[in-house]
Amino acid sequence: MSKSVPFVGMIVSGIVGIMFLADLAVGFPFKRVSIAADIGFLLSSAILAYLSWSVLASTAEE
Hints:
The chain is mainly alpha-helical. 81% of the residues lie in helices and 0% in strands.
């Protein structure tokens, strides 16, 4: 597998995490419509970041 795929996953998880953390903290860009959705997306972005890092680490061992 190409190493660019895990990097794209990390970048996407970072963007999603920053967006929903900002929404949770100050209400921008979604005006804090659902706190549960903000927390869910933050957890999802953390899981995606971990999985991307794990794949990157496993390909480096080979």
